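Aim 2 progress update. The chain analyzed this quarter is reproduced below.
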Amino acid sequence: MKIIRTKDYQHMSRQAANIISAQVILHPDSVLGLATGSSPIGVYEQLIEWYEKGDLDFSRVHTVNLDEYVGLAGDHPQSYRHFMDTHFFSRINICAKNTHIPDGTDDHEDYVCSAYDGLIRSLGGIDLQLLGLGPNGHIGFNEPGEYFMKGTHKVALTEATIQANKRFFASEAEVPRYAYTMGICDIMQADRVVMVVSGASKAAILKEAFFGPVTPHVPASILQLHKDFTLVADEEALGEVVL
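Predicted structure tokens:
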């Protein structure tokens, strides 16, 4: 595990974007695993800035997103498809057909999950996976549990996750209770994994995830075992860690 300590959110975003941009420049046909939420927005903004300057070309890149809410169509303002289109895809030269997100409107759970795993395999796996860190240690929507879920699956969101996400909806009642999420196996099989973590509110769970035992009760802790994992975190997020 490599740790990059940054001074603030903007610095963190730039450092993570540096890693991703190098991947795209060196391997223009890369498969990028992407994340949603507030943590990676700064990363996407930096990549867009470099694209607009002519430094990056995404025309041959494929992407696979971690997750999608069950029950939300892609044009729903709180769907992760809409998030990615708004914050990234519509602002770079990526081919829409090369961007992949689980279909939240399809309630055939077994089909959606097996098809998404098959898609990732058909692309040759993920070259670089970008992650954030959930308040309870989840990655994607792999929530704390008794064991690590291997493949893409439908998950019931925990109360902690619902509370963390309700700010994006008009009311707590509107927050979806289920999501499709990429499994731990696909994440761990990515050639490289980069996680961005910012803010004092993540300090305790960061310490637990990466300086405590590997346990499915803290799903992100499995990344301690990844062959090429980089944690990019700001001073506040690393506030409980002595490096």
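The mean pLDDT is 96. The longest helix spans residues 9-26. These observations will guide the mutagenesis experiments scheduled for the next reporting period.
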